[in-house]
Amino acid sequence: MAISQMGKLTILAPNQYIDELLAQVQGLQQMQVIDLNDVRNKINLTDEVHDVIEAYVDDVDLDQVDRSVMAELDERKYEIERAIELVENYVPKPSFMERMRKGKPKVSFRQIEFHGQAFEEAEIVERVKYLTSQIDVLEERIESYREKYDELSPWRKLEITPNELRRFSFVRGVIGRIPSTNEDQFFHFIKENDELEYEMVFVDENDYGIIVFLKDPENRELLQELREYQFVPLNYSSNKLPKELLDEYDEVIEQSKESRKLILAELKDSQELLDELKLQYEYVSNLSEREQAKVMVARSNHLMVIQGWIEKENEDRFIHDLQNRFGEELVIRKTDIREDEQDEIPTKLKNNWLVRPFENLVTMYGTPHYNEVDPTPYVMPFFTVFFGMMLADLGYGLILFIATLIPMLFFNFDEGTYENVKLVNILSWSVMLWGAIYGSFFGYTIEWMQLIDLQNQVIEVLGISVAIGLVHMAIAFALNVYLQHKRGNNAIAVAEGVVWIAVIFAIVLAVLGMAFESLSFLLTLAGWIGAISMIAMVIAYIVEAGSIAGLGNGLLGLINGVSYFGDIISYARLMALGLSGLSIGAAFNLIVSELPGVARFTLGVLIFIALHLFNMFLSVLTGAVHSLRLIFVEFFGKFYTGNGKPFKPLQVEEKYVEIQNHEIMED
Predict the structure, then answer these.
(1) Is 453 exposed, middle or buried (0-12, 13-18, 19+ CB in 10 A)?
(2) Which of 492, 357, 351, 353 is nearest to 419 (CA)?
(3) Neighbours of 228 (CB within 10 A)
(4) How many other CB atoms sit within 10 Å of the CB of residue 626?
(5) What per-residue string of b and e applies to 230-243 under the rule 16 or more CB within 10 Å gives b?
(6) How confident is the model at residue 55 (pLDDT cuts 50, 70, 90)?
(7) Residue 131 domain-assigned?
């Protein structure tokens, strides 16, 4: 349970192997490539390798090619991802449970590479874009022709067109509509005028469709009077009768529907194509990662140098795999890590199955420096205890346990999600344990189980909380002592670690002296330990400064020490939040118990569930936040910097798939 030991490898090979070599390194997913351009003056390379680096820096064309290729690959990734989204809109979606059980498909790196090289990417992406765009075109066409059809359909019985009416010599015919709200006045006007005749074409709820005949074709004034009665002439320019056009519209609509149906059927049956597109995305993403790594490689027209960080336990196997693949075409050397490179070494955490889920909590604050202590093994027990004390309900713990155990057993999560679910499952045990200690089950008190009555033993629980806090802080100071001693800062180790451990010990002695009359002499001993500790801190700062000027730092240390007593009080929240959650749960139960008999077992059940789910949500939220605060502020603040660099090997993105194994590529 520590930070994995890192080694550094230098690989020299002919420049023509750069693509193949990077592919092999990516397939193994064990080495983080070092950017030789950024650190070339800090790395202890031979003159030969240094010359290669300088030649690469001066060779602008190579860099430009790499960056243009990266831009092209980014565009390909975008197009493939867009095609995936388009196909996903039509392929039947599996249910949530089915997706969770199935998880990401498991493939090998070799499968991705072979598939990507054979896949007709451009043609298929264009085909997807064409099909989906055709659906839009067809839907627009159907909508457009439906509007035309609906507008013309009332005139289906019309047996003459406006163009034909215009050819009449002795009479003038006008086709149009009048609103049904104005029919009485309009028809009265026509009947009163001997110069007008009409023929009804259709009647609907809004309009009348009619043909009006003017006996005098030149009488424009009469036509104007018709318009005053809201007569609207038909805008129709075709020489075909409406029923003929309507049949044509209907045929276009049906043909468009059939074409759309065929395209939709093809897209809905494209699950295999969708899977292939996702594999292709991973392949292009692999190429993109390798192109980015190329920029970090030192190379000339004939030779290249790759350097990278790798876990020491993987070094020999990694070298063996590459040499088996390339033989004498490349040279691999284990390179010594210089003292001034310590800040460049990436950090890879390595913990057992129980501690590993808590690594995410540590990296939320910051990745440990390579030469720091991995605090995860210390975070695990304390965060678990803190969270459990703040929720402290057997019922809530059971819900969390079941809600995480079932997915862990039956769902196929990726590694990150699985670790997060397992984290909550581990925490649920602590919630159940403290719930049993307090005898709390959904706010009800179970007396036969209860070891501590939280509501009536507040002082005792407060004492337990502070005692846990003192142990927590003592471990933090002890870790600071270890780290400062490791760095050679022994005086600081005394001033900022040993002294405060002694003060905590003195506090414990003082409490024992006050609690037991027979141990009252411990009060005097505690006072002496405290006084000696303060003097030792001032002396340590003077020794560190090498002069009396360190006295100022010593006095500041005394002043800053007051904040540590505030930190001790912070642990009282373990009692306070546990008590508040228990009290709120009991209050909710009281509300339900006040309901009448029938309502209590009908509506009351729903209210009980809703209120306790709400209380559990708030308790989980506050428990997580305040537990993190105790870790980040009261614990990490005393020794941990978190300014390390996470280990990022050249690997597969795994957005849509999960890599089964790390392997070397074969021809």
Answers:
(1) middle
(2) 357
(3) 10
(4) 18
(5) ebeebebeeeebbe
(6) low
(7) no
Beta partners for residue 659, in sequence order: 107
Helix axes 458-486, 550-570, angle to 10 degrees: 140
DSSP class of residue 239 equals S
Range of the domain at 512: 349-638
pLDDT in tens, 239-260: 888 899 999 999 999 999 999 9
Pure H helices in 354-498: 359-365, 376-391, 394-410, 415-438, 458-486, 490-493
How far apart are the C-alpha atoms of 222 and 214, rounded to whole Å? 8
Taking the C-alpha atoms of residue 86 and residue 74, their distance in angstroms, rounded to an integer, is 18
Mean pLDDT on 480-484: 92
Contact present, 496 and 488 (Cβ < 8 Å)? no
The tens digit of pLDDT for each residue in 621-651 reads 999 999 999 999 999 999 999 899 999 999 9
Q: Residue 3 forms beta bridges with which residues?
A: 349
209: CATH: 3.30.70.2750
CA 440/CA 437 separation, integer angstroms: 8
Q: Residue 165: what pLDDT?
A: 81
Distance CA 114, CA 119 (A): 9
With 0-12 CB in 10 A as exposed, 13-18 as middle and 19+ as buried, what is 303? middle
Burial (Cβ within 10 Å: 0-12, 13-18, ≥19) of residue 500: buried
Residue 418, φ and ψ in degrees, nearest 5: -60, -45
- With tokens 């075109």, the residue in question is 137
State how many domains the chain has: 3
549: exposed, middle or buried (Cβ count in 10 Å: 0-12, 13-18, 19+)? exposed
pLDDT tens by residue, 19-37: 999 999 999 999 999 988 7
Cβ pair 616, 402 in contact under 8 A: no
Strand partners of residue 214: 172, 196
Measured distance CA(293)–CA(26) in Å, rounded: 10
Q: What is the 3-state secondary structure (H, E, C) of 23-65?
A: HHHHHHCCEEECCHHHHCCCCCCCHHHHHHHHHHHHCHHHHHH
pLDDT at 665 over 70: no
Cα 557 to its chain centre, rounded Å, is 42
Residues 6+ apart with CB under 8 A from 555: 538
Confidence class of residue 615 from pLDDT cuts 50, 70 and 90? very high
Residue 606 lies inside a defined structural domain of this protein: yes
Whether residue 309 is found in the same domain as residue 432? no
Whether residues 542 and 468 fall in one domain: yes
Which pair of tokens denotes residue 582? 């228990």
Q: Which two tokens stand for residue 555?
A: 């006095």
Do the domain assignments include residue 148? no
